[in-house]
Amino acid sequence: MSNTSPISRVTRSREEARASYDKMSGWYDLLAGLSEKKYKDMGLQILDIQNGEQVLEVGFGTGQCLLKMVECAGETGGIFGVDLSPGMLEVAQAKLHKAGIGDSVEICLGDAAELPYADNSFDAVYSSFTLELFDTPEIPVVLSDCQRVLKPGGRLCIVSMSKKSQSSVMVKLYEWTQKNFNKYVDCRPIYVEKSLRDNGYVIQSVTEMSMFGLPVDIVLAKNE
Length: 224
Fold this sequence. Notes:
- The protein is α/β, with parallel strands linked by helices.
- It has helices at 14-24, 28-47, 64-73, 86-98, 139-149, 169-180, 192-198, and strands at 54-58, 78-83, 105-109, 122-128, 150-161, 202-211, 214-222.
- The protein is globular and about 45 Å long.
- The model has no long low-confidence stretch (mean pLDDT 91).
């Protein structure tokens, strides 16, 4: 990469993040769910969950993706999810039970930096608009723990705002806002592909998209 200028830091604590998402949980789908949906759907399409696979979603939020994941994995598969926010967990559980698949998914509260699962548990791990919420030194920790719970040859798909070598005016404005109002704007563009490569993943594909002028990358990687 020709230019790897520093990404902004995230200064708010886990407790502050949890409280913020608890407050947003009841109306998050109206606020961001619709705008994020097409990127999440594309990420799931790229991950290409197969019947019978064991799959983990890190940062499931309101459970938008869990419904589709259950459909893809089928009756012989297993879908699991971990999220930091009790409010999001409650909304996701209600959504799953309304769809009649509450017993088909195991979701729990937890930290992506310390996943509550055994080594080599999953065929695939999926995470959308979550990795960029972590402070810069925590990103490799999260990716390493995803690597730990993935089976050898397992797949990781990350959907995230992405920092590029040349930033647009919109990106610069967003980064300025995040830097100066960090307690309220907690996510920011990160070097998605580079972070995965640096953690030893083998990149399978990179799909570049844009959301309101902000780059979004969908990176599919393999755990070697």
